[in-house]
Fold:
Amino acid sequence: MTRENPELSRRHFLSAGLGGLIVLAPAAAAFAGCRRGLPGDPVPAESAPRPGARPAPPAQSPYAAGSPSSPSPYDGAPARACAATAANIEGPYYRPGAPSRSDLVSAGISGIPLLISGRVLSLDCRSALENAMLDVWQADSNGRYDNDGSFGAPPPAYRLRGKLVSDAQGGFSIRTIIPGRYLNGASYRPAHVHVKISAPGHRPLTTQLYFPDDPYNASDPFIDRSLIMDVSGNNAGKTGHYDFVLIPA
Ligand code: FE
Structure:
């Protein structure tokens, strides 16, 4: 990234540090969910139920309040049982027609390298879905999308966007960078990567992937814990893993 962001909000973000990390939810809230916000803008009610949100853990859960050893519900990626991948909001920054590529790091893009890999599976969590289309988009390390006005209008060439297909084992791999956070109302959205997935004979899915340990996970009204990737590595480079599970049509 060579361009400095003039906005105070961005400077705030940068000063907060990027070491942290990446993440989406549904329709009515969709528009408020992912736009660039300004202090003073209305903030979505955090108490509002989110489509796809998981129910609160039972009292005997290790996450139960009052347990001195209870981790935060957002500490790390949760163990996932076999279940369809949760939908998450599309937000306002999707652009159709992204180029076919699995390497989203084009000229002028900089940031902490990130390799996201995984598989696309059917609802039994075993059957590989070959030729599933993954349409991926995300913000850059400063929290900017190519179509949010930061780069002028009309937006420039596709930036940090790409379409790729899964292989015979349902596998996919995406080379990108850790996305930056951006304001939603008065608070930052945690880092996240958007994806739309379609596969023959299955319902299309729009969702987002999130990062463990992002301090904004706990306050974001849209995150679903089941969408937190398994992430390892450091600021020299990170890897994220996630298996998508689609529902037969
Ligand atoms: Fe977003």
About this structure: Residues 104 and 160 are 5 Å apart (CA to CA). The chain is about 5% helix and 25% strand. Residues 34, 91, 93, 192, 194 surround fe (iii) ion (CB under 6 Å).
